Amino acid sequence: MEPRIRVSAILRRETGVLLVRQEKPGREYWLLPGGGVNAGESLVDALRRELEEEVGLAEDFVFEGPVAIADSIAPPGAPAKHVVHIIFAGHLGRRSLERVTSADAAVRNHRLFDPEELVGITLHPPIQRFLARWQPGDPVVYLGAMWAP
């Protein structure tokens, strides 16, 4: 099984971080906006495309990073799956999220979460502790291998 590469962004406004809610058959969870990298596509180009598709943000963000990397690996007995998450960071600035729409059928909602709200949600990959303490300028961190749901 070849690992799949996924890029995502920690997009902040003040203390809040933007997450998107995805619904797939039998599952509902939150994640950082982003998605898969296509063959021949740079990481940043893939991230820009995914931000436009998932949250309708087509502006030229200035990204820091990558700021973190994590593996999601399916547990024994589950269908084989391995995703390498490469996480960048950016700032929402004054961009309005009022008119954010998604071209991605799986994305159902989006919202800014404060760090203390991250504890009670299903987040993929489960990087709540990292998001709660990460600050711009922190060194790149490998978050380790995490079991995928």
Radius of gyration: 15 Å
| CATH topology term | Nucleoside Triphosphate Pyrophosphohydrolase
Kindly name the structural category. mainly beta
Main sheet overview: 8 strands, mixed
Distance between the termini: 17 Å
Number of helices: 2
Q: Compute the average pLDDT.
A: 84
Q: List the quaternary state of the chains.
A: single chain
CATH class: Alpha Beta
Q: What is the number of domains? A: 1
Count the strands?
Answer: 8
Helicity range of the residues?
Answer: 10-25%
* Low-pLDDT sequence parts: none
CATH superfamily descriptor = Nucleoside Triphosphate Pyrophosphohydrolase
From N to C, what is the helix and strand string? Answer: EEEEHEEEHE
Instruction: Work out the strand percent.
Output: 35-45%
- Overall shape: it is globular
Name the CATH architecture. Alpha-Beta Complex
Q: What do you see in this structure?
A:
With 149 residues, the chain is mainly beta. Helix content is 13%, strand content 41%. Strands 1, 2, 3, 4, 5, 6, 7 and 8 form an eight-stranded mixed beta sheet that branches. The longest helix is centred in the N-terminal third of the chain and has 13 residues, at 43-55.
Q: What is the compact description of this entry?
A:
The chain has 149 residues and is mainly beta. It has two helices and eight strands; from the N terminus they run ββββαβββαβ.
